[in-house]
Specification:
alpha/beta; elongated; Rossmann fold; 4-stranded parallel beta sheet; homodimer
């Protein structure tokens, strides 16, 4: 296993730079240590960064990868005097895109993640909505929801709802399917008016059993047998109501959200 | 105002590609329409994308920007036969980084946002923790918190906590500072054992007044006078307890989170 340090050096939050850090997962046989350096907006801070780069090179026996987003040309050029593999978002993306668009890019610090950013208020409102409509907490305001997730308890509805709100500004409510619904053999009545925005989640019984056991070890609720029955019944309920669903067993909230966005064709 | 369409075309969730979409905010005089096309993993889907690219070109009177992440070489090359400005994450980042690391990158679909990704379970656990410790909901389990945000009601604690959990896997509790605390002139007793992980948020009175008025218009709670008094008292409490704080008035949750991560020096 090779060791490499990756620095995310930005004059703003460094969030766009770190998002590219996900691409490192294409190289599973390198062990990356990730170091974030947000708000690196003075020469002094650049010099501190250079010291860290040197230390990391010595510690790893190989030069670091530096993913950088610095609007100021002097800071940019100074940093690049270090020996590292640089991925410069300005050089690579922003400046060439400016040529394509025939526009000079803004170079102030922290442009990308300011409150002026696209849809910021929508996202904050969506988070509030989603937290207030978690786990069937209230029946009021569902007409405002853009997506309503349903599924058995602990199948991943909450983190997926939160991700939809935070990332895409989608107002996502979620409703658990519970023994009461299974006995009645129908979705909760309140949902009947909102079938067009309901999306289901399901999960493999073995996984649900493991997840529930972490919380309530040895309970009937967590038993494999009960998990299996709940899942079969929930899937039948959803099938009868004509609801699309996805299996959360081996999918991340990012993957589930992308699927939900695609299937429910919400504008992004 | 120029119009341009930006396509995010990926064989996975498209989340890394869309993160780069933030860089478009460096070009405020272009009006970008953003179109996500996740799970574009067959030739048929590539051909549909090409049709959309052609339509967008006609509609905008200019070729679109395509930010693409496709592992498969045939899909990649086919897409590039369209007339567009391509930003190819493989060509630009992954392949050159492979040369630097002397490793062949994985090219399967959706590598970056699978549940196999770094720290996925930590992030899910952090979200659960954070939602269960929102708004001083419980005093139990605070020793597990990595950050505890405090501040007056509606100053941005909840969305910031959720972002810290979702993005960085930080277990972030939050506690409102309420009239009871102001009368006592001290932080809630339960927090005294956790001073080292407390971070404060504050806000300008005018902004707080506006935010609270949206919820409870005309109330004493929302009055500018009350907002001003609460904020002064809360800042005094925090100052006396030696707590660092940041002003949320014109900062996004991304910016606040980056500041909190930096000041509390939590490992990422």
């Amino acid at each position: 296993m090779l060791n490499r340090t990756v620095f995310f050096i930005s004059d703003g939050t460094g969030i766009t730079a770190s998002a590219l850090g996900k691409l490192l997962e294409h190289f599973p046989s390198t062990n990356f240590t990730q170091v974030r350096m947000p708000f690196t907006d003075t020469l002094d801070k650049i010099k501190l960064a250079q010291v860290s780069i040197l230390h990391a090179t010595e510690a790893n026996g190989g030069r670091p990868v530096v993913i950088m987003s610095l609007g100021d040309m002097e800071l940019r050029n100074t940093l690049k005097q270090s020996n590292a593999y640089f991925i410069d978002l300005f050089n690579t993306f922003i400046d060439p895109l400016g040529l394509e668009l025939d526009q000079k890019p803004l170079t102030g610090a922290g442009i990308a993640h300011s409150v002026m950013g696209t849809k910021y208020n929508d996202r904050m409102e969506a988070i509030n909505f989603t937290l207030n409509h978690d786990d069937g907490m209230t029946n009021s305001g569902l007409e405002e929801a853009q997506v309503i997730l349903i599924g058995v308890s602990r199948c991943g509805k909450t983190p997926t709802s939160v991700y939809l709100a935070m990332q895409f500004g989608i107002k996502a409510a979620n409703y658990p399917l519970i023994p009461e619904d299974f006995e009645r053999g129908a979705l909760p009545a309140i949902l009947h008016n909102h079938l067009d925005k309901i999306f289901g989640l399901t999960i493999k019984p073995e996984r649900l059993h493991a997840v529930r056991n972490e919380r309530r070890s040895g309970s009937f609720y967590a038993s494999l047998d009960n998990c299996r029955k709940e899942i079969i019944t929930a899937e039948n309920l959803m099938r009868n109501a004509g609801i699309t669903w996805a299996d959360s067993t081996s999918r991340s909230v990012e993957e589930l959200s992308a699927i939900i966005m695609e299937r429910t064709r919400k504008p992004t």
